[in-house]
Amino acid sequence: MRYSQLRAFHHVALHGGFSRAARALNISQPSVSDQVRQLEQRHDVLLFTREARQVRMTDAGEALFRLTSEMFEVEERIGALFDENRAALSGHLRIMADSAMHITDAVRLFRESSPEVFVTIRTGNTEDLLRRLRNYEAEIGVVGNTISAPDLDSIDLGRTPILALVAKGYLPQGTRRLRFRDLAQYPLIYREVGSRTRAQVEEEAGRLKLSLMPAIEVEGREGMREVVASGAGIGFISEAEFGHDRRLKAIPFEDVDIGMPESLVTLSARRDVPLIRGFVRAVQKTLASEAA
Fold first, then answer.
1. Of the candidates 98, 162, 156, 93, which has an alpha carbon nearest to the alpha carbon of residue 130?
2. Which end of the chain is more exposed for a tag (fewer CB within 10 A), N or C?
3. Is 0.70 surpassed by the pTM of this model?
4. CA distances from 217 to 91, 192, 223 (A)
5. Which of 108, 101, 66 lies closest to 285, judged by CA?
6. Are 267 and 154 in contact (CB under 8 A)?
7. How would DSSP label each residue in 71-84?
8. Mean of the per-residue pLDDT values for the chain?
C-alpha cells in the first residue's frame, strides 16, 4: 500500500468528506477520490459508503482510521522530536473530565508555560471518557475512579467525599448532617448509568444491604443540579464538584464515609506525545505544590 493512499483515506475520515480532505491536503478532489478507490480495490474492501454528498465509514473504515490515527500521530511525534529543542509547544490539547475543578490549577500552569496551545475541556462520564481516549478523540482524561488497565497510564489526584445535594429549605432547618440509612425516606435523583458518583452510592447501599431506588434519573451533572434545585429530591455530588450555587446545599453523611478517588489517565502508547507530556508535568508540579 502507498503512503499517499493512506494519507488520502485518513483525511477523508478525519474531515468527513472528499472535498474537505482535498482542501486540507491542498490537492484536487479527483486525486483524493482516486487514491481512496485504489486503496479499496487493491485490498478488496469498502472503506466508505457514499450517499449523495455524504460519506460514512464502514466498520472496516473505522478500524483502519484508528490505525492511521496512530500512524500519523507517530509521524507528528517524530517531527516534534526534531523540533522540541527549538520550538515551543503548540496545537490542540483535548481534555475529557468528570469535573474540570480537579485540574484547573494544572491547566493554568500549563497555559502559562505553553501559551500557543489551544485547550478544550469537555465533561462526560467514565465510560465515555475512556472510549474517547482509546479512539484518539482526547489526550487527557480525569475520572472519578482508580483506573487500572494495561493500555493506560494513571496519576492519583486524591480523594474527595461524596455528599448529599439538596435545595436550600428542602431539609428541616438546622440540618447539618444526614444519615445514609435514612435516604430511602426521600425521593432520590441519580445521574445516568456510567456515572461514578452513582456507582459509589449504589455500592455503599449494597454493602449496607439498603434498598435505594432513584425517583428521577438525569443525564449529566448540570441537569441533575437543576432538578435538585427545583426541590424534587436528593442528589449526590463529590465535594470538589459542588462549586458555588446559592440555591443548593451539600450535606455530609454522618454514618458512612463515601469517597470519590480521582485519577488522571492517558494512553500508554501516547505518553511521549509532547502535549501530553507537557500537561502531565504541569499536573505533577501542581500535586507537589499542594503536598508542600
1. 98
2. C
3. no
4. 38, 6, 10
5. 108
6. no
7. HHHHHHHHHHHHHT
8. 89
